[in-house]
Amino acid sequence: xxxxxGGCFALLYIxxxxxxxxxxxxxxxxxGIDSAVFGEIQLLLAEKRxxxxxxxxxxxxxxxxxxxLSVLVATSKYYDVLRVLHFLVPC
Length: 91
Description:
The chain is an all-alpha fold. Helix content is 60%, strand content 0%. It has 3 helices and no strands.
C-alpha cells in the first residue's frame, strides 16, 4: 500500500507502521502483529465504515423532506396552503 491511499487503507497502513510491520511482510510471518490484533483492527474499521454509512443514509433521508419544505416556503406566495398541505404533513 502507498502512503497516499485514502480512507481505511491509510489508517491500516499507519497502524501497521506504528506496530513495526513492514509492507514487504510475507504471508505466514509471525514477526509483528498476531491475527487476533489484526482482526480487531479490521473489526474497528468495519464498525467505522458502518457508522459512516448509516450517518450518510440519515442525512439523505433528512435532506429530501427539508428540500421539499424549502421549495414550498420559497414559493409560498404563489399557492394556497390548503391545496399543498399533503406535501407538508406526512400521511
